[in-house]
Q: What sequence folds into this?
């Protein structure tokens, strides 16, 4: 079985994001960038499937600037086999990403595409589902467990009321949630080995996909700041304050 | 102009998130229809028909809609969109699962998790875990939007819309429902509750979570939430997670117990009216958003608080 894993380069989740004073976006200069945390989970899942013998090849794809190659290298060091960098300095929206991924799927014919449920920069939560629709493939979103059963996938999903398991006829799309696994750190020897793994560089035009944005950003602003309140001395004071505030 | 709203429900009752989505659609403008796709969900359709401002309810009944799987919903909704300028759904796991498929089929960019509508093309949404607020204008012919419930009040229930039956699509499906684990409780639903008590990693075990958080929530008539660390450690079920990638809540009262206040957690609760934090570290970031902070050991403070209420 072959698996395709799209990975996005985003601001590291530990960085406190700052809005630019001209309100055109957030400040990306000299900010630590990392693989989207959900995508680390997708890569890990694919690598575990390979270790279990159900997967023979893992191809990772990133759409982004030249530096997204580092994100691909990280995935290769975790155990993926080869990478495709679709290089662009434009911001590609989820719809455009899904369209490019659909073309790559047509070329690579994977049995499974595993994506993150959400990129922690745009918080869109839509690319995987869009790819599913474009390909007419079934999807198991927000996965906390994935089982391969012949040509079928059994995906347990984290939904509002609890957990739901669906069966998908492959090929299929899975988007991963936080509790699917705990991603490994790449070891130094594996990081060295990853440098020799092949990475193809392409451009959006190679896929004939129009990535012109559909949304124009009018403004990016700071959220309203919440003022810190007061520290209370003890439980009794807390209770009386809450009573006065009408909260209890 | 006309908007179609996908109702979120469990075949028995309509979720509060649907009523909030109706309010968002009112801000968008035009006629509002609500689609209730379910199995034996006539009661839900009747409930939707009462939502203030709804023109009509489309009711699709069929076993394929019982769990509102994305593929079945896509096949049903895409043809209906010929008659609509916009598709709205609550940003629940149902909405998040279903709407991007329809957006892709209509070749439009979805606008996720909106918190404000400026006009019929301009929407406001948080990005970067709510650390930035983005206003976007969509050039697409049809708008596909998911709505953050905490940003809109629920529509009233004095309407009397007509209910129309729409026939189920017979497209073959490549996905099917297998099973579910749903925790039934008498507690208010997390995103609709007036008060929420959440526990964090500091609770240390599921037993302690049950022993300390639950009685406090009972006293307050509150829903129970948790940080990611508490859920990951198995102290609380997954659907209790509050935060950027869990549930977004904005109750009148939010009590954070043994939670540090990572940005990903704050993203899910910082719009609460009153925030109380109990944490033994007086430098914990949660205190930067708390109206009332108690620096104390939760193992003594929480029982004392429960007792005092
Ligand atoms: C992609 C991604 C998505 C995420 N999404 C979410 C999300 O949706 N929601 C979420 O919550 N997190 C999320 N996180 C995780 C987040 O970054 C934090 O790791 C998490 O919120 C920490 O949980 P916590 O506050 O319970 O634990 P900790 O950070 O370990 O804090 C425990 C706190 O308890 C206090 N404490 C310890 N003992 C006691 C005691 N006896 N009495 C009182 N206080 C005590 C400590 O001082 C500390 O402040 C996400 C992370 C990533 C990378
Ligand atoms: N530029 C990109 N390159 C590769 N994968 C991406 C890109 N953008 C989004 N994805 C994938 O889609 C998932 C969901 O992203 P989003 O829909 O933007 O929240 C991510 O976790 C990635 O797996």
A:
């Amino acid at each position: 079985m072959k698996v395709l894993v799209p990975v996005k380069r985003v601001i590291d989740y530990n960085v406190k994001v700052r809005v630019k004073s001209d309100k055109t976006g957030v400040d990306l200069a000299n900010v630590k960038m990392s693989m989207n945390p959900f995508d680390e989970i997708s890569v890990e899942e694919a690598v575990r499937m390979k270790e279990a013998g159900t997967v023979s090849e893992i191809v990772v794809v990133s759409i982004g600037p030249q530096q997204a190659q580092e994100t691909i290298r990280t995935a290769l060091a975790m155990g993926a086999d080869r990478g495709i960098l679709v290089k662009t300095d434009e911001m590609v929206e989820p719809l455009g990403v899904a369209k490019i991924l659909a073309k790559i799927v047509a070329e690579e014919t994977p049995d499974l595409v595993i994506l993150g449920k959400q990129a922690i920069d745009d918080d869109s939560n839509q690319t995987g589902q869009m790819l599913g629709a474009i390909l007419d493939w079934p999807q198991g979103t927000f996965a906390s467990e994935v089982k391969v059963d012949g040509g079928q996938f059994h995906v347990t999903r984290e939904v509002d009321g609890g957990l739901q398991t669906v069966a998908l006829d492959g090929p299929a799309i899975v988007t991963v949630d936080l509790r699917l696994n705990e991603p490994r750190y790449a070891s130094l020897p594996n990081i060295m080995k990853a440098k020799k793994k092949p990475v193809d560089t392409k451009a959006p035009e190679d896929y004939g996909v129009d990535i012109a944005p559909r949304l124009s950003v009018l403004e990016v602003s700071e959220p309203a700041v919440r003022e810190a309140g007061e520290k209370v001395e003890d439980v009794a004071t807390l209770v009386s304050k809450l009573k006065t505030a009408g909260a209890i | 102009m006309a908007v179609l709203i996908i109702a979120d429900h469990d075949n028995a009752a309509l979720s509060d998130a649907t009523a909030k989505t109706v309010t968002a659609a009112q801000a968008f403008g035009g006629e509002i229809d609500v689609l209730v796709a379910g199995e034996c969900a006539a009661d839900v359709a009747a409930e939707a028909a009462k939502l203030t401002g709804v023109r009509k309810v489309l009711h699709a009944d069929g076993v394929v809609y019982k769990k509102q799987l994305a593929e079945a919903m896509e096949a049903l909704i895409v043809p209906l969109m010929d008659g609509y300028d916009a598709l709205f759904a609550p940003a629940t796991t149902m909405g998040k699962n279903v709407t991007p498929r329809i957006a892709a089929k209509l070749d439009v960019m979805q606008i996720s998790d909106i918190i404000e509508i400026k006009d019929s093309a301009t929407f406001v949404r948080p990005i970067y875990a709510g650390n930035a607020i983005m206003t976007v204008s969509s050039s697409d012919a049809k708008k596909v939007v998911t709505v953050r419930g905490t940003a809109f009040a629920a529509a009233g229930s004095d309407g009397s819309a007509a209910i129309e039956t729409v026939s189920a699509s017979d497209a073959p499906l490549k996905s099917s429902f297998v099973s579910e684990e749903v925790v039934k409780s008498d507690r208010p639903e997390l995103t609709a509750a007036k008060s929420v008590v959440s526990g964090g990693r500091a609770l240390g075990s599921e037993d302690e979570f049950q022993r300390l958080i639950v009685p406090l929530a009972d006293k307050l008539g509150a829903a129970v939430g948790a940080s990611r660390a508490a859920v990951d450690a198995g102290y609380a079920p997954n659907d209790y997670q509050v935060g950027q990638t869990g549930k977004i809540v904005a109750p009148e009262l939010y009590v954070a117990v043994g939670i540090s206040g990572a940005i990903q957690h704050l993203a899910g609760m910082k719009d609460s009216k009153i925030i109380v934090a109990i944490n033994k570290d007086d430098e914990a970031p949660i205190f930067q958003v708390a109206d009332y902070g108690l620096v104390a050991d939760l193992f003594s403070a929480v029982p004392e608080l429960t007792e005092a209420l």
Remarks:
- The mean pLDDT of chain B is 97.
